[in-house]
Amino acid sequence: MSEQYPDHAQNKGTRPSPYGPQGPDAHLQGQPAPQPYPQQYPQAQPQQGGQGYAPQSYPPPYPQVVVQRQPKSRVAAGLFGIFLGGLGIHRFYLGYTAIGLIQLLGCLFLGLFSLGILSFAIGIWGFIEGILILARTDYFRVDAHGIPLND
Predict the structure, then answer these.
(1) How many domains does the chain have?
(2) 62 domain residue, yes or no
(3) Is residue 118 part of a domain?
């Protein structure tokens, strides 16, 4: 039995050295140092029939939707301006929301603080714009999106 395992018989009760029988300084005597990890790692293999990995294409995040805007009615915008001009309804209808909010909030808040006198002035502003819309002035030929008004 000792013939098959000569080192085991001689070094009974001791652990074998991880550096081999020469010791830890064997690489200093001209021998290469032991390498605990492999030097080469497995290479990634390309897929069959290709020269690497194929690029992935992703679907667009949102479907492409084209919105066809219908032209607004000049008569409806003019009547909104004449009857509801102080609230800015004609401006909202044409898509000018910033000026519509100014007219609406101005009518409500200034009307509260002045007992309705300043809201009457904003109503006159909307009334005049309603007449200008019906009269087809250059300023009111198109809506906020640049679409000409319908007759």
Answers:
(1) 1
(2) no
(3) yes
Number of other residues whose CB lies within 10 A of the CB of residue 118? 16
- Between CA 78 and CA 8 the distance in angstroms is 108
Per-residue pLDDT of the chain (151 residues; tens, 9 = 90+): 545 555 555 555 666 666 565 555 655 666 566 666 555 655 555 555 555 565 677 776 777 778 888 999 999 999 999 999 999 999 999 999 999 999 999 999 988 888 888 889 999 999 999 999 999 999 999 999 999 999 8
Give residue 145's Cα distance to chain centre. 24
* CA pair distance 107, 110, nearest whole angstrom: 6
The tokens describing 95, both together, are 């898509």
Within a domain: 91: yes
For residues 141 and 65, give the distance between their C-alpha atoms in angstroms, rounded to a whole number. Answer: 27
Q: Which amino acid is at 116?
A: G
Identify the three-state secondary structure at position 73.
Answer: strand
| pTM listed for this prediction | 0.56
* Tokens matching residue 43: 């290479």
As a whole number of angstroms, the distance between CA 69 and CA 71 comes to 7
On whether residue 88 sits in a domain, the answer given is yes
Q: Which domain holds residue 108?
A: 74-140
